[in-house]
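Hi P.,

Sorry for the delay on this. The queue was packed all week, but I finally got your sequence through. Input first:
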Amino acid sequence: MDDLRIGSVTIPGDELKVRFTRSSGPGGQNVNKRSTRAEISFPVTTSRALSDRQRALALERLGGRVDARGRIHVVSSSGRTQAENRVLALARLQGLLADALRPPPRARRATKPSKGSVEKRIKQKKQRSEVKRARQKPRVDND
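Then the structure:
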């Protein structure tokens, strides 16, 4: 099997295990006689293609998809041939790993508003308050 490239990471083809089984559902004789469903598994925990940081990131983000042995399973049965399903499953695996290995976004640096912007905001609030106070009915004092 060919190597799988995901950004700067290249997964050797010998780490990917491909298995073909019979598809389920409608399809008549083609489904009943041929094993066209492609199932690809990739060992995240033991892969030599991933660094320790990438492995930790992938395990954290793909937590629910990783089995007890530390492998990810991807299945495709929408195509009519083994080759078509193998390509679809590889593309799905490539997408999953690309999303999982994408570096986390930079954290927002906390800033405080400038002195001028604080003064401007307070000035606007006072003006608005004055407008609303001017709309009220005048009070009548009973002395």
